[in-house]
Design brief:
about 300 residues, six-stranded parallel β-sheet, TIM Barrel, alpha/beta, 9 helices, binds zinc ion
Length: about 300
């Protein structure tokens, strides 16, 4: 009787040990599976993002290497065209406002001209590489920039730029993003930045930098940069000074904030003999005709 009891106890102990073993084994393998499925997920995400980059690369990489004939080096200069709003201006009476609102038809005509005449629209990274590092670019190169980030840049300019496969840059007043209806939303900025339109800074509140101290300038330069970098998950290296204004502190402020290239509205083409933090731009005046556009695009010494 006693041995029988002992046997029963023995069997129960063995069963318990076996059960414990099975449970432990299950826990361990489960964990492993979870880990490997997490790894798989990461791997898949990684692959997807890689595919994404590769898919976009031929179309939207920001730094192309130009080869072949008809290249120019940085002893030459390049027109950096400055636009603002692309919209109907027929109801606008104020001359200054009207001059910066270019009707979409006129804009399209200009883009068509660039295409028909074999122009390459450079990104700012490419312009920087040309001016600073002496990398050659096509002889007929041009840079398209838009100041202030008006919503019509998305509704009117962006479809035309896409149609021609052109690169462009929008300088954003970050204080207006998602707050003022006339300006681009963060969703629009993100979409465009992912599709060939480079988003860069135009300060937080369109401050007149020439009236600000070094510290004040630095604040708006840094804050706008950080805002865009966080929003777009990229480095923001370039800025256009509001109204093209600056003072003796501006160079230091721009350097301290980490900008490597910046634009004024001083007339002329961009060239390496100008301080890279104070580059010229070509104003495309909506009140002037197509002939002035052609003149400014083709003659570095335009009036
Ligand atoms: Zn502006």
């Amino acid at each position: 009787m006693r041995t029988f009891k002992l046997r029963i106890v023995g069997i129960i102990v063995i069963i318990l040990v076996l059960l414990c073993g099975i449970v432990t084994y299950n826990i361990i393998t489960n964990k492993k599976n979870n880990n490997s499925s997490a790894n798989n997920k990461q791997e898949i995400l990684h692959k997807v993002s890689e595919i994404g980059v590769k898919k976009d690369e031929p179309k939207y990489n920001k730094l192309r290497e130009f080869k072949g004939e008809n290249l120019i080096h940085n002893d030459k200069q390049i027109p950096v065209l400055m636009y603002h709003s692309i919209a109907d201006n027929s109801m606008v009476t104020d001359t200054a406002s009207k001059s910066i609102i270019l009707p979409p038809e006129a804009f399209k005509q200009q883009m068509q001209y660039l295409k028909d005449n074999g122009y390459t629209t450079l990104t700012l990274d490419e312009l920087y590489n040309f001016l600073k590092n002496g990398k050659p670019v096509p002889e007929k190169s041009v840079v398209l920039t838009f100041d202030d980030a008006y919503e019509d840049n998305y509704t009117n300019a962006y479809p035309i730029l896409k149609e021609f496969g052109f690169r462009a840059t929008i300088f954003v007043i970050t204080g207006g993003t998602d707050k003022i209806g006339a300006y681009l939303t963060s969703a629009q900025l993100k979409e465009m930045d992912a599709n060939g339109i480079d988003i860069q800074s135009h300060t937080v509140n369109h401050e007149e930098l020439d009236k600000l101290s070094l510290k004040e300038q630095q604040e708006t330069l840094v804050q706008s940069k950080q805002f865009l970098e966080k929003l777009l998950n990229k480095k923001v290296d370039y800025i256009a000074y509001p109204y093209g204004k600056y003072n003796n502190f501006t160079e230091q402020a721009a350097q301290n904030a980490g900008y490597t290239m910046a634009f004024t509205i001083n007339n002329g083409w961009a060239n390496k003999d100008t301080n890279i933090l104070f580059l010229n731009r070509v104003f495309v005046n909506a009140l002037k005709g197509f002939d002035q556009f052609k003149e400014r695009l083709t003659n570095p010494n335009y009036q």
